[in-house]
Amino acid sequence: MADAVAAGPAKAAGRGPWRLVWDQLWAKGSARFGLVTVAVLVLAAALAGPLSSLGGWSPEEFDKRAVDAYLGGTPKGDFGGISTRHWLGVEPTTGRDLFARVLHGGQVSLLIAFTATVVVVVTGTLAGIAAGYFGGRTDSVLSRLMDLTMSFPSLIFMIAMMSVAEDVNRILLITLVIGLFTWPGIARVVRGQTLSLKHREYVEAAKVGGARSWRILTREILPNVSGPVIAYTTLLIPGMIATEAALSYLGVGVRPPTSSWGQMIAESIKYYETDPTYFLIPTVFLFLAVLAFTLLGDALRDILDPRGGRS
Amino acid sequence: MILYLGRRLVGVAGILLAICAITFTIFYLLPNDPAAAACGKTCSPERLADVKAAMGLDKSVWQQFADYLTGIFAGRDYGTGPSAVHCGFPCLGYSYEYSLPVWDLLTDRLPVSISLAIGSAVLWLLLGLGAGVTSALRKGGFTDRTLMVLSVGAASLPVYFTSIMLIWGVVRTAGWLPYPAYHAFTEDPVEWASNLLLPWIALALLYAAMYARQSRNSMIEAMAEPYIRTARAKGLPPRTVTVKHGLRSAMTPILTIFGMDLGGLLAGAVITESIFGLPGVGRLFYDGLARSDQPVILGVTLLAAFFIVVANLLVDLLYAFVDPRVRY
């Protein structure tokens, strides 16, 4: 990958280009914070099962002893019932363990965000490269399609589609619906990049050398748009997490018993005065995830996209 | 310019038609039956057929779409005989839930949504551009770093969290402001503003944070342009250089996003409107979903699309004024 970069001073230093990116990333405080937080959250979500059994509770397990039936089911103890039994406290009324729930919710939130991002990046990159490289009719059809998609009131439309579709896999649906409206952004970036790359000498050289379109696209163009694509991808993730949370918050996202951060916030919002801890815990996780991915994406953009932050 | 405008208007009409067709198709293909919903629980098959005929649902999808389009331009009648209801000129359908044409519902709710969107837009532009430009001019300094930390944090806060915290802090605990209720601007401007202040802040904070980041980048880029050096070399006062030469060209990318954001918000502030209980278009949409009131859902979607498309058009036209390099 990125042969052009590897041939530069990177090789002289005896390091690969990605190693250089890593070094620059690690040198920056905010990026380091983002990276570590992302790693911790992703690990915690991936290991939600084992971690919550470490805490001793599964996400759907009721614990009536942790809530006070005489006080309308509010958790016993201060700060939403945070104790050695329940590390992040419990849900009012049911007494379900918040540590287990927030990890499992994170699993769903991050899963949706990541798969939606993959859908968007693959579609967007393909459409962008095709539009930029082939030009002509392909470009005008794809560009019109991008304009049309961007003119859709996306949140309104997503809500409408999510609310009327019944009896389907909601995680899959939410991924596709988010993907459907988000691909034009990255497609435009890639298209612009491809337009500027396609008349470079090395592309011309490959053409003269008899390379077919497919080879030029995958070996010459794709590696050179990968920098901005990676930066843009990281910056897409926080938006995806927030969109999923918004949809679930409005009650059209994932549905119980599946939980996600947005869905937990929606349920906890009516307790924000009686049990603020319950409201704060999923919010803090959501906030940290969005913040960490934004910081990481900002730093990656500064490093990988020459136009972004260096000027 | 006239030619360009003409071409763009045709494009706008095309996009709106396409959105109309796509939205219509999706709702037509959906399993739920608006006639059954309108008819109620105790509905005989004959009566259901009557309702279907009155709503025009017994016709083919093409006929229905054609009727819908005709209705937008010429108005139409639902049903026949004494029970017929007339739906006047921009007929975006008839809501059997409210027993009112969708257009009347929209125009009723629109002032709320417009007040919310415009007010918060003013606020976020002031805050966002102010912070962004200040940061850019003090690049790397303490002010810059503080503002950027604040804005990246604020951009990561979900709007419902900010809203709830504002309600809790300002309304419930401090009691400085009443729980927001909508008062028309024409009746009492002070009540109007003081009631909308919290929703404005909640909505503006998120956008201000994004605009601060965006305008900082774009301002730094603009100030690095050679013509800024030329302007300085000519001996222009720093303020003129910053405002007339730097800010003006830094505005172009901001204007693009602003158009999209404002257009999207005019009918799309669903979360903010529902948290603060404001009877706007977003709220109408949200209630419409709960009752599967399809004419309302379709109407709001089209209106929202209309605002986005028109806002984009206006932005492109404004370019010529903001950026002298743009000519049509």
From TrEMBL, chain A:
<feature type="transmembrane region" description="Helical">
    <location>
        <begin position="171"/>
        <end position="190"/>
    </location>
</feature>
<feature type="transmembrane region" description="Helical">
    <location>
        <begin position="229"/>
        <end position="252"/>
    </location>
</feature>
<feature type="transmembrane region" description="Helical">
    <location>
        <begin position="278"/>
        <end position="300"/>
    </location>
</feature>
<comment type="similarity">
    <text>Belongs to the binding-protein-dependent transport system permease family.</text>
</comment>
<keyword id="KW-0812">Transmembrane</keyword>
<keyword id="KW-0472">Membrane</keyword>
<feature type="transmembrane region" description="Helical">
    <location>
        <begin position="33"/>
        <end position="52"/>
    </location>
</feature>
<keyword id="KW-0813">Transport</keyword>
<feature type="domain" description="ABC transmembrane type-1">
    <location>
        <begin position="106"/>
        <end position="297"/>
    </location>
</feature>
<feature type="transmembrane region" description="Helical">
    <location>
        <begin position="108"/>
        <end position="133"/>
    </location>
</feature>
<keyword id="KW-1133">Transmembrane helix</keyword>
<dbReference type="GO" id="GO:0005886">
    <property type="term" value="C:plasma membrane"/>
</dbReference>
<dbReference type="GO" id="GO:0055085">
    <property type="term" value="P:transmembrane transport"/>
</dbReference>
<protein>
    <submittedName>
        <fullName>Peptide ABC transporter permease</fullName>
    </submittedName>
</protein>
<dbReference type="InterPro" id="IPR050366">
    <property type="entry name" value="BP-dependent_transpt_permease"/>
</dbReference>
<dbReference type="InterPro" id="IPR035906">
    <property type="entry name" value="MetI-like_sf"/>
</dbReference>
<feature type="transmembrane region" description="Helical">
    <location>
        <begin position="145"/>
        <end position="165"/>
    </location>
</feature>
<keyword id="KW-1003">Cell membrane</keyword>
<dbReference type="Pfam" id="PF00528">
    <property type="entry name" value="BPD_transp_1"/>
</dbReference>
<dbReference type="InterPro" id="IPR000515">
    <property type="entry name" value="MetI-like"/>
</dbReference>
TrEMBL record, chain B:
<dbReference type="InterPro" id="IPR035906">
    <property type="entry name" value="MetI-like_sf"/>
</dbReference>
<feature type="transmembrane region" description="Helical">
    <location>
        <begin position="254"/>
        <end position="276"/>
    </location>
</feature>
<keyword id="KW-0472">Membrane</keyword>
<dbReference type="Pfam" id="PF19300">
    <property type="entry name" value="BPD_transp_1_N"/>
</dbReference>
<dbReference type="GO" id="GO:0055085">
    <property type="term" value="P:transmembrane transport"/>
</dbReference>
<comment type="similarity">
    <text>Belongs to the binding-protein-dependent transport system permease family.</text>
</comment>
<dbReference type="InterPro" id="IPR045621">
    <property type="entry name" value="BPD_transp_1_N"/>
</dbReference>
<feature type="transmembrane region" description="Helical">
    <location>
        <begin position="114"/>
        <end position="137"/>
    </location>
</feature>
<dbReference type="InterPro" id="IPR000515">
    <property type="entry name" value="MetI-like"/>
</dbReference>
<dbReference type="Pfam" id="PF00528">
    <property type="entry name" value="BPD_transp_1"/>
</dbReference>
<protein>
    <submittedName>
        <fullName>ABC transporter permease</fullName>
    </submittedName>
</protein>
<keyword id="KW-0813">Transport</keyword>
<feature type="domain" description="ABC transmembrane type-1">
    <location>
        <begin position="110"/>
        <end position="319"/>
    </location>
</feature>
<dbReference type="GO" id="GO:0005886">
    <property type="term" value="C:plasma membrane"/>
</dbReference>
<feature type="transmembrane region" description="Helical">
    <location>
        <begin position="296"/>
        <end position="322"/>
    </location>
</feature>
<feature type="transmembrane region" description="Helical">
    <location>
        <begin position="149"/>
        <end position="172"/>
    </location>
</feature>
<feature type="transmembrane region" description="Helical">
    <location>
        <begin position="9"/>
        <end position="30"/>
    </location>
</feature>
<keyword id="KW-0812">Transmembrane</keyword>
<keyword id="KW-1003">Cell membrane</keyword>
<keyword id="KW-1133">Transmembrane helix</keyword>
<feature type="transmembrane region" description="Helical">
    <location>
        <begin position="192"/>
        <end position="212"/>
    </location>
</feature>
